[in-house]
Every structure is written in structure tokens, then in C-alpha cells.
What we know:
By secondary structure, the protein is of the alpha+beta class. Helices cover 26% and strands 26% of the residues. The chain has helices spanning 3-19, 40-43, 64-77, 117-131, 159-162, 202-212, 257-269; strands spanning 30-31, 34-37, 49-51, 56-57, 84-85, 94-100, 103-108, 139-144, 156-157, 170-181, 187-197, 231-235, 238-243, 276-281, 288-289, 292-293, 298-299. It has a 4-stranded mixed β-sheet with strand order 6-7-8-9. Strands 12-13-14-17 form a 4-stranded mixed β-sheet, covered by helices on one side. The protein has a 3-stranded antiparallel β-sheet with strand order 3-2-5. Strand 7, helix 4 and strand 8 form a beta-alpha-beta unit. The protein starts with a helix and ends with a strand.
Amino acid sequence: MNAKAVFCVLAAVMLAGCAARPDSVRAPEYYSLYFLRADLRDAAGDGALQVTTSAVPVRTDAGPDETARELLSALLRGPDSDLYRNTLPPETALNSVTLEGSRALVDFSAPYASLSGVALTLADYAVTLTLTQIPEISMVRITVDGQTLDYRDRQSFTARDVLLLPDGDVVGTVTVALYFPDASGTLVPEERTLNLYEGDTQVEVVARAVENGPENRELSGAFPDGFRVRSVWQEEDICFVNLSSALLETLPETANLSRALLALDRSLHALENVREVRYLVDGEFLDYYGNVRLLEPYARTDD
């Protein structure tokens, strides 16, 4: 399949996700499943990956981890209609699903590793769209028998990754240096051109790109697993980053928060229109976030 054909399939997947997420699926007791149309000619302009009409009931007192297990078990069983087929390979089993903060860590058995290319993307996105219906889950990381699939472009996924609009709806781009640790732990810049879609701000796309990790496989993610920014916005030339105190309880003791905030700080300062970065915790200025001192403000130093 050539690059143009691959893009067309992915664009169809993304548009299907946009069209098939009614507010009703966010009700706490019912969730939907995402499967592939058995005959793509029937999908027409609705896209290849679609939500089924049947909903999965989950007990209202079930926690997010139990809900995630029930949804993944239903996804593995496959659709109950011949109009759809599963994106996950037969004989795939769920080894585990755990939550770290707002990130779901999903581990499948070996058959999942047989996927590659568009088939792997469709499976990853079906899992992501299914799990991110759960209000407590905003990101999904998928491994196979405890190992990442190194031939993937990325290892963690959000619903927004799937629901991106096609290139024709990009309203702008921004070229920026994002900072990630190398093998020695030193933060080094990775030059990236990021797409801006309607409603995006430059500081939002930079923060999201740092959270999603580097493209260069010689670099590592700057954020510990389970860590994410609560919100980020800009007022004049000052960028405000709002952190969540609740995440501190879920992060491991070894989490390097100092390096994470420094990487985010340097990446945001790489934007020409950001002069200062100020950190808040739950909307308030505090001296510390965990054991990291929040010096206010961080100012850009021009060479």
C-alpha cells in the first residue's frame, strides 16, 4: 500500500472517530466498542473504524480499572454483527490493564505483535477510542508481553491523536525545539514542526507533544508514566502551566519531576512569543510540586 493510500485509510479512521462519539456513550453505565467495517465499501464517507450500535453495560459502582477490563474483554470477543470485524488478531488475550494516573497501561499477549502498519494503527486506535470513553482515562499505552513494539511511531495514544482532522483542516504549523533526555539523561532539543488545528494554541500543542514523547528513538520521554499537564494557556508573553496535585499520589517515588518540568519549560520557551513560564498547582501558585521547587517566574534567557 503506497503512502497516499495509507493516509486515506488513516484519515477515514480519524473521521469515523469524530462522527461516532455521541455524548451518550460517556454515560457511566454504558460504553461502546470500536470495530472495522467488514466491507469498507459500505463505510462510504463514514470511515473504516466505527462504533457498534450495541453498548456494553458496566456496573455503576465499578472503578475505572474494572471498567477498562470489562471493555477490553468485550473488544477481544469481537462484534456481534457480521457488518463488523475485529481489529485485534484472533487468540489475542489481555494480560493486564492497570492505571497510572490518567494513563491506562494495557498489555496483550503475543498475537498482538503480529500486527504492523495500518493494521496495527487500527487496532491501537480501536483500543484507545474504547478506553478513553472512561472519564478517568485520557491516554493509553499498549505493550505485548510487557514489551513495547519498537517499530511503532509512538507508544502512547490519546483520543485526540485519533480524532485529528485531515491535513486540509490544519490552520497553521509551528516549528519548535522540544526537549527530551538522551541516554545520559541530558535534555537535548528535537526539532519538530507541529500542526495547529482549529482551537489549538501553540503552547497547548507544545505541551501535548512533550507529553507524547520524542520521535527520535535515541531519546526518551521527558514525562514519567502517568504524568500529564492539567492545562496550559498563554496571556500576552506569559505561559501558565497548571499541574494536578492528585497525580502526585499515583507517581512512583523514582519519577523525575524536576527533569519533566525543566523539559517542558525549555520546550515552551522555544516559542518566540513565550517570555516567561509560570507553574500553578490546582490553579494556585505554590512553592513546591512534590519535592520540586516552583520558582516563579521562569524567564527566557536569550543568548
